Amino acid sequence: MNKSNRKKPILTQKELESRIWYRFLKVVFIGFYAYLIVSILFFTYASKPTISINQKKLNVLCDNGRKYILNEEHIFLSEVNMNDLNEENEYIKRICEYGSTIKFYEWDKYPTPENKNYDLKYDQHQVGSWLTPVKILILCFGGAFLSFELIKRAFLYIVVGKRII
Predict the structure, then answer these.
(1) What is the pLDDT of residue 85?
(2) What are the transmembrane regions (predicted)?
(3) Which residues have C-beta within 8 Å of that of residue 47, sequence separation ≥ 6?
């Protein structure tokens, strides 16, 4: 192909830089990818492994020798309130002191013991693995980088005539 037959680009890259619409497009493009990167980081953080409690093995060992499975007593604890037992603490103290045969509507008749009269025994296990967030991070950042380059090169090819490869 002759150099004389080659089409002249619509705009050069230098001319593009002087256009306000091009600069605005670059800002939007960079803003979109900044948002994408932050989203990838949040998604990666959310997929990290967590510690979970097996509710079926959550036992209360009372000081008086009684043993209860909280799941069967309709008391459900999560990792969030394991260290800060407020309302559940009252119920567990009453169950240990008076037994679990008290009807719910009769609980106000029985005072809550002041001192803690039980120990919690529970089984913690990890849900998920660290491999998942690493995979997500590598794949998403790789995909974001490839799409960024592809869009940029396609745009420059269309507007400036710059070869993609």
Answers:
(1) 59
(2) 20-46, 136-160
(3) 128, 132, 133, 136
